[in-house]
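Q: Here's a chain of 408 amino acids. Please give me its 3D structure as tokens.
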Amino acid sequence: MQVVFVSNYFNHHQLSFCDALYELLEGSFCFLQTQPMEEERVKMGWQAEERPYVRYVQPGGTTTGGLEWQNLLLTADVVIFGGCDDESYIRERLAAGKPIFRYNERLYKEGQWKAISPRGLLQKYKDHTRYRKAPVYFLCAGAYVPCDLGIIHAYPEKMLRFGYFPETREYAPGEPFSRKKKGSILWAARMIDWKHPELVVKIAAYLKELPFHITMIGGGELEEEVHSLAEELGVTDKITFAGFRGPEDVRAAMEESEIYLVTSDRKEGWGAVVNEAMNSGCAVVADHMIGAAPWMIRQRENGILYHDGCEQQLQEYVAELLQDPAECRRLGEAAQQTVRTEWNARTAAERLVRLSREMGFLGSADGQCLPVPPVPALWTDGPCSPAPVIPERRMYRYLTERNEEDRT
């Protein structure tokens, strides 16, 4: 087996990327699922269609199909290790000094102040820092991952931009723009504290005098509170509360919406809705602290980033777009192009395979411990390009200044 991807479960956000790897490696690819998916996520439509390359860990150390997972992970040319807290799966491989690409979101979603914990630092040293000189690399699912890893001095010069890659849809020229409803705004997420659904209701109150309509898809513990706020602010006629919908229904709603709002805070490690909304030609307005935003959105080029916590800035940006349909369309078209040409599953898979070959990992003999090669800078942006370490307190300034420099 050339490549094995091990994670807690196989979901719809990984499907396209894994399909591409399976095709590129001519079947020499396996996804190893380590645990059953939670019922809540199954109900939300996270469970992906079955694929021939998926194997499930069974009691006794085997997988479906009778393979021993320990041997599978030890003999593969490359192992991608993501979304799994149980280090025992890769312990033997780490000890053998064989190539691993770790693949995960940021370490300190609740705040980098947590890095001061002696117990936490010891665990981070065991899991990450001590492998700084080993053939262990990090696929950063979010722009704030490098900064977190920099705090613990892990993976120097071995961090790569990456993310999640939901389905990329191909559209005929002019689509889906012909289906978009004028003044339509969409928000889709669970109604929980760090997704900040209340901000959407406040936007409706701010926009009250303009022609628009907001659709909010999702439910959760804050649902009743959000409904009450809409009544209190007198905007129930401006918002449709659509409840939970499956992934297909959400994509259909994106294709009919001009503006897509992402109001999550720093706890949103990536945010695959950004990929989907951009692919659907939406003008995305997103909090700058979510993981996907700094890498996928270039300020006022293919979307808009508002500074985390600045409600007025968010409201003004949305009002600006509503009053300028041409700008809304321009941003949506540029966003669609970004996903079509760069931030998609096929590009990510092709680049990872090429990178693994350039570094001498693919096709290496079983049992061979390779030297630790540096990461070749094959791309300057997008998946598998070097991930810069930018302090989170400077990120918004960096993003706005970078785009100004590009324009001049």
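Q: Can you summarize the key feature?
A: Residues 325-341 form the longest helix (17 residues).
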